[in-house]
Amino acid sequence: MPDAPSRTAEQGAPRKRVVFVVGGPGSGKGTQCDLISRDFGVPFFSAGELIRALIASGCPEGKQLQDIILQGQIIPSEVTVGLLQQAMAGTQAETVLIDGFPRNTENRTVWASQVGYDCEMVLLFDCPDEIMMQRLAGRNQGREDDNEETIRKRVQNFKSQMAPVLDHYRSIDKVTTLRTDRPIEAVHAELSALWRQHFAPAAKA
Ligand code: UDP
Ligand code: MG
């Protein structure tokens, strides 16, 4: 009989191979995750989208969460991790992409204690500030946090709060960095090659 998939102590949920995709706002996370998801059939969950959906559902803490987002700050980790756990529980897939999480050390440690296992890889999208600012100024997705002042705070917070998270993951050799100040297709080609190398053989088994 094949071995049962390993399960985490707290949740009893099957363990997945989780890839965290991180990078500043406008670094291309959502765009590239969409393409990888389409080409390799891997589900992806955007922490920001899940939070916006929670707020849109009219939950009691919605106003408070929206205020935090407009300040370019990070919402309580328990909320985000809960949303991600719920989303992951809804798929049988063994490998999942998570876009825009973790954002700070508390996110990372709450994930570790609540989910019970770590990610397999951190994909860091590296893009100069000016390019990210230009992209965000040019996109119109109706997001209230895409105004100049909030964008500036989001970029600053990404730099300061992610530095220790990246240091940690570098120290255990989990970070892969991609330059994303290039055309969508060029980044996608590089990311696809990387994906095939790391994940496609296992996915086919
Ligand atoms: N956010 C958060 N925790 C997360 C992800 C997002 O608090 O794990 C909040 C944060 O305020 C962030 C906003 O949601 O600025 C938008 O996040 P999203 O990932 O959608 O923005 P992006 O970085 O893609 O522009
Ligand atoms: Mg995004």
TrEMBL record:
GO molecular function: AMP kinase activity; ATP binding
CDD domains (UniProt xref): ADK (cd01428)
Residues annotated as transmembrane: none
EC number(s) per entry: 2.7.4.3
Enzyme class: transferase
Pfam families per record: ADK (PF00406)
Alphabetical list of InterPro entries matching this protein: Adenylat/UMP-CMP_kin, Adenylat_kinase_CS, P-loop_NTPase
Keyword terms, alphabetized: Kinase, Nucleotide-binding, Transferase
Annotated Gene3D superfamilies: P-loop containing nucleotide triphosphate hydrolases (3.40.50.300)
HAMAP family: Adenylate_kinase_Adk
Family assignment from sequence similarity: Belongs to the adenylate kinase family.
Protein name in the entry: adenylate kinase
Native source species: Edaphochlamys debaryana
Lineage: Eukaryota, Viridiplantae, Chlorophyta, core chlorophytes, Chlorophyceae
